Amino acid sequence: MTNSNGSAPSPIPQQLQSVPKRMSSLPSEQRSNNAPSATSSEKNAAAINLTADGNPAIAVTEELSPAEKAARAKESIQSTGLSKAFENGQHKHAKGQLATDLETSDSAQVMQAVANASAKPVARPPSPPQESNRPPGAFGGNKPQQPAQNGWTSFSKLPNPGDEKAMEELSKAFNTDALVEMFKGSRDSNGSHALNNDLLAQYMKESYYGEWYHNAAVILFTVVFTWLLTKLGGGLMACLVVGAFSATYYQTSIRRLRRNIRDDMEREVSSNRLETDIESADWINHFVTRFWLIYEPVLSAQIIGTADAILIENTPSFLDSIRLTTFTLGTKPFRINGIKTYPKTEPNVVVMDWTVSFIPNDVLDLTPRELQSKINPKIVLTIRVGKGMIGAGMPVLLEDLAFKGTMRLKFKLFNEFPHVKTVEACFLEKPLFDYSLKPVGGETFGFDINNIPGLQTFVQEQVHATLGPMMYAPNVYTVDVAGMMAGTTDLTAANGVLAITVYSATNLKAADLFGSLDPYITFHIGNAHNAEMGRTSAFEDTNNPKWDETHFVLLNNTNETVYLQVMDRNSGRKDSAVGVASFDLKELANNDNAVSGLNLSVQRSGKPVGEVKCDMQYFPVSKPEKKEDGTIIPPAESNSGVLRFTVHECKGLGGDGKRGSGIGLPLIGGKDDLNAYAVVKVNGQDRLRTKPFKRSVNPRWDKFIEVFVADKTKLDLGVNVIDSKEFTDDDVIGRWRMSLANMEDEHIKQGLDWWNLKDGPGKIHLSAMWKPIVMTGFAEGLGHGHYRPPIGVVRLHFFGARDLKNVEAMTGGKSDPYIRVLSGMQVRAQCERVDDNLDPDWDATFYVPVHSIREDLIFEVMDYNDIQKDKSLGLFDFLLKDIVKESKTEDGQAYYEPLEAIDKWVDITSVERKKGKGKLHFAASFIPAMELPKPESEKKKGQENQEQRAPAGNGQVPPATPPQEAEAAPEIPPEKDLHGELIKYTADDKGKIDLLAYESGILSVSVHTAKFPERVKASASILLDSNDPQYRTVAIKGVDLPFNETGDAFVKEMDFSKLVVRVQPVKDSDKDDSHIGYYTSSVRDIVRKIMERQGSDEEDEGEMFKLLDSDLGSIRLSFRFTPVVNFKLDPSESLENQGNLTVTPLKATNLTAADRSGTSDPFIVFSIAGEKVHKTETYKKTLNPVFKDEQFTAPVPNRTKVNLVAEIYDWDQFGKDSIIGQCEVSFTGKELESFAAKDFEVSLKPSGSLRLRMLWQPQLLARKRTGTSLLGSTTRIFTSAPGAAFGVGKDIAGVGFGAGTKVLGTGGKVIGGGVSAIGSGIGGGVSAIGSGIGSGIRGIGRIGGGGSKREKSSDSDSSSSINQQQPAVAAPAPVPTVSTTSTVDQRGSMDSSMSPRAAQGGDATGAINVTLVGARNLKAMDRGNTSDPYARVRIGGRIVHKTKTIKKTLQPDWNETFLAKISDGKTLLDIKIKDKNTLNDVDIGDCSYDVADLLQSGQSFDGWVPLEPQGTGEVRLRIEVTSSDSGSSSRGLFGKIM
Questions:
Q1: Using CA atoms, how far apart are residues 1472 and 1485, in angstroms rounded to an integer?
Q2: How many CA atoms lie within 13 A of 1021 on its CB side?
Q3: How confident is the model over 895-943, as pLDDT tens digits?
Q4: pLDDT, tens digit, for every residue of 411-432?
Q5: How far apart are CA 488 and CA 557, in angstroms?
Q6: DSSP state of 946
Q7: N or C, which end of the chain is more exposed by having fewer CB within 10 Å?
Q8: Measured CA distances, 139 to 127, 142, 149, 496 (Å)
Q9: Cα–Cα nearest to 1050, from 1000, 998, 1102, 993
């Protein structure tokens, strides 16, 4: 009988014949006969399962209905040792959201479950009994032994070469050659390393041998001592004793000399041989030859099992299966041809070159007996095509393998097990290999494809190209041996768990235009396209979902990035991606593995499309710790952890082939047709499904899952082995069920890893690894997801920008840039725009509260557009860590300190964070908020948590208690905060902080709910001393609007600051400032209420306030004030420096004579910041003019940066006006106090003087915006002289003028006198902020707003509590002035604080003289960019006047006057400017003006009124009251206050 290669069968030992062989390709009879019998361990497993269960397995016949099967299974669950988690898991299976063993992802329930698991006692897993470590013969007892001197390091000063730290320090002082010599082991010059066992050597040190003076001293001693003995009467015996000692010394000395010489010679010879010669390795080759016959079958079986498990996962769908049916490396092993060693390396490094060959067909070195039993390598890969019975296998044969190469191995050693840290391998030259590949025909008729010309060379080049960059010198392939032994190199293994608590998302923008947005979030590690690690639930039809869910993501390390993919669930089509938010997990290591209060920006194509609020905590797997003394502390045990559950293989599936089908049909085919796959269940939910292992009763999968387990005492595991079928339903052929506690006991204590399957024959091989995770502090680490207390304020000063992008180049214009500051999706600040300028200078300062050192800000430069949305010109990402550092106290409390302020130019990037155009100049600094030290009770609680985190000596963790509210004990209030700032307390209560004593701080406003009488869709905005919202809530629909959000803003000066909370309807345009109600109050009043609540244990649920300008609307608000420390406001940034300047020129003296007559015709032009604000009348032929009825008011954004410039000109009828005098007047706080008029005598250049009366009224100025303003109308301040506008482009919010000045807004009247700051003007959307600045100064009335509703406001708060409304009281203070300047509000309504007569409008009668002076900046209506304008005036629907037409001009001067009578309450002048055409006149613009105020006060008006629509021009009116029946003239300048 011969084998396949024609030789006689080799006498293989009996031991080799018992190696398991693959049997799937054998006939069923032969396979059943050759099947190995169950081992003793397997029999024990079966017996233990039977005795442990005591109940029959779940037996379900095919004839039962599905409902009956489920009922039978439910009844049998208890008998399998499963808990109710299995039953509950069946209902959760369809949801697909279970990320752990828990049944929910709700944050509160997850927190409670983890806390309960931590509170349970932790039982250490059972371990087999260990033998005593006491050495044989040692005495018993517990008496501690003295420490022994271990190893050579106890007797040497040199460190252990495996000690990396010691060697690193040593390598800094010595080079490599010195280290080699130091650890070489050669003897010293005196032979100190030699050992001798003679008697004399035991008493004399090594240093007393060998030297010439030692020998001379011995000879001298012998002669002298012998002479002395003879002198003392000693005999021959004494001399022989002395001679014996001398002879012994000589013998020892010469022996050591010879040995040292021989050792030195051998060492030098061997050292040279190591460096130059290649050693043979015949001894190890002999060992491998014997060992190979034993190990090769085992190795082949492992390779087949591993390869098949990989092949089934990667089999293409068009193939039935790919199997490695034959694998053997033959009987001839590899051979080590030679080893070359490099001795001159670091003491902890070994470098060798190995020449290895594997040429099994070389028979020259084989004996005839070895040749007779030789087996050649053979690998057969069977590829099966077709399905089921219709299919065939095609064998691919690989044989005649040969390999030879030289590889360099570098071993790096260290002093911990396994003592080899890394191994670096590389080929010094390209290895040689050969093979024979027969893809068709098999062994008999196969054709070697290498015979195809060029194919073998091509394959070799491809192999070299692949291996070259990997391990051809100088490239090396590194194997981390220590990491493999510790399990840290497996990148698929979990070394910790990341707890992600997702609270909500805001302002999400859908990616598609169809359907509603139904958002949910998926979690990914490393890349957004990687496998999904978990997902939240989906919310229907909302852009602002609120989840409040906690999910656990398994991590291998914290060097990756976690991605939160926001998805939109769709029905009937694929879910679409909304955007991705990311977070670098490296920041966890810098923050004690916990980061809370994250506001992650959701990006799509580089643009923000929403924001996600979440917390993250990382909990590492408990690992053993090694102390400095070498003691190893075992890992801390916990009921929470990571379970790694592996399904290896099954054996003996199918049994005897008598399985029946549910319909009684005969079974087609034998048990070879099993295509088994396994389904792993955790608490009844499918967690893993393997690929089918085709056509085998012994399938091998080697697949594992890892799952975070919150409580292992409630975990149940299950595996279903299922036969995959093509044309019928899959059939369950075996089940395994067990709780984790029982499996842990049997697997570890009893050593079982094979279990019998139920409901079918066969066994299953399973393994499990438990990695405990201590979850102490998990509940405490969960935040609230909405608002975090501020850590401080960032002061930002934007100087300007240069070379910005021009997005209006196509229209022939330039960008209108402004800059805004964003925190996530919230716009926290915004500056005034600069029109048509690519190099703007803003000079704007903002204060932005921040809540975390990770709350990075975005500086975005925008281009303003009237109608369209503003466009981004670029942005800069500002990292808060550049100006803030985190510090900690001794007990671990964190607080934040400022770093050095920065002032720099930066490059602007695009929205996609690519290179942009332009540079930005800004300065930034940090102002910390007050941080109080933790009370002693909280410190003790933190210390207890820290002790719980630290493992005890036996590896146990004290059980934690569920989170409970601790009772607050009375504490001694601290004297200073953590920044060293003295804390200001009230005089009556030492523990109560006097918040009113702090001028600056952060006001937090919690908007709870808002209620309206009808359904609305609105959002709430917070404005604090600002024209723009500093925080905006999400939009909500309904009658009751539960906002439940908290925003904040910085209070620069409590005495002047005013808060507005505005409820706005949601509209498409972000420039629409309309509102449906607002609340306003001074900050000092709010802080006073906060102090009244200090010390109260009740939860602040807020107070309900009535919304002004709203019918029955109300809002619930609560507040919190946090002072800032180490801060002093720059005087130039004070709110007192913004406002209105009222100037009354009185007289000029000794002017320069400009005319021949020795006089002049002077007039004055006043300007501020280069803009003309007023021009007086011309006074003829005088050098000392006295100005009459000359007064103007101009808004000033910052009076510390500008001066009032007065230029006196001499009027010339024909020539150009010449300047005859000039001066500048500063009106800062040093020169001019607020609300107090003051006369200034100013010297003129070159001669003369000018006397002025000036009044400063602090006021918040509204932003200039085309088509919109803070007041909802274009309210401006105008001059009494033609051609000069006082507004300087600024609208006035809550305008209040003293000196009898009025604000007229379509009947709206601001009543006040003297220095009263009058306003609180709300119109079209925003309240006038800052009205009533100063002691006792309060504003009355409102400008605009629609309707004629009467509003009552408190003296201290323009909006009061619902139950505390009080009538308004005004406090005017008269100032002697004469003339007035009025403003116009076309769309405003009549002021609610007017007298009843004016409010009704029906009783105002009289006569007025109206002069249409002219118009300017009219819109061109003709082709030549001109118009032919004329004006038409209506009163009460009747045309009362029509001007003449002036041809081809946009600046007509009519100067036409007419008399109009006002009666029957018809006080509205309707003026329309039209363009004259031959066929049909065209409207240019129109405006309306209500003269009711003039009739009541008897005052006149001269000013410019803007036309509607915006941008069509302005018309100048002069109105004088000739007679009035209202009786207002009897009231004088101020009138009666109602």
A1: 6
A2: 28
A3: 999 999 999 999 999 888 888 899 999 999 999 999 988 776 555 555 5
A4: 999 888 788 989 999 999 999 9
A5: 9
A6: H
A7: N
A8: 26, 10, 19, 44
A9: 1000
